[in-house]
Amino acid sequence: AGLDGLHVDSVRLVDEGDVGGAIQFHRLQTSLRSQLSSTTSQELVLALNTINIEQRFGELFQAIKGPEVHARGEWSFELSDWLRLTTGLEFYGWWAEGVYRGPQPTQNEGSPRDSDPLASQRIISVEDDNLTEIRPAAYFDFGIRPVKNLLLVPGVRADFYPGTGDVTIDP
């Protein structure tokens, strides 16, 4: 059982003595820095990744693989000797597929089942070939230098999570 190209066909999912795993990732990244004028600069970054993760502990198993894209565009504007505005856009995307066989996940913390023995927990199996995570973001900050040795950097960042429709805004 497994996903094409994930190399799990040879994994013995029921051998209780089988313990192991592997994490493999590859990244290709490029960037372009430009001085658009004497007061304006730009940086563009693009990273393409692939991730392949496989873990097994006896009959418990998880594997996930897929490509990722990270992109960022940032622009800085020197507004005066003591004031700089930086703004940018970011994008993160992951298109993955995965297999999981293990205990049913519980809440993140404080679950009374956390210390239960594995033999008493419900084992589930899930396979999904369409795990998509998209996260766009925008940010801006000011670099304020009221005196030579002091730099204040107030700013704000907004992230959007299309899967849940949530937006976070962080100072």
Give a structural overview:
This protein is mainly β and 171 residues long. Helices cover 0% and strands 68% of the residues. Strands 1, 2, 3, 4, 5, 6, 7 and 8 form an 8-stranded antiparallel β-sheet that branches. A hairpin with a 4-residue loop joins strand 7 and strand 8. The N terminus is likely disordered.
Q: Indicate the low-confidence ranges by residue numbers.
A: 1-15
Q: Which class of secondary structure composition applies to the elements?
A: mainly beta
Q: Give the radius of gyration.
A: 23 Å
In terms of DSSP E residues, the strand content is over 45%
Shape: elongated
Number of helices: 0
The level of helicity is: under 10%
- Secondary-structure element pattern, one letter each: EEEEEEEE
- List how many beta strands DSSP finds: 8
Q: Largest sheet at a glance?
A: 8 strands, antiparallel
Separation of the first and last Cα atoms: 46 Å
If you average the pLDDT, what whole number results? 86
Jot down its keywords.
171 residues, mainly beta, 8-stranded antiparallel beta sheet, 0% helix, 68% strand, elongated, disordered N terminus
Short recap of the structure:
With 171 residues, this protein is mainly beta. It has strands at 19-35, 40-57, 60-80, 83-103, 123-147, 150-152, 155-161, 166-170. It contains no helices and 8 strands.
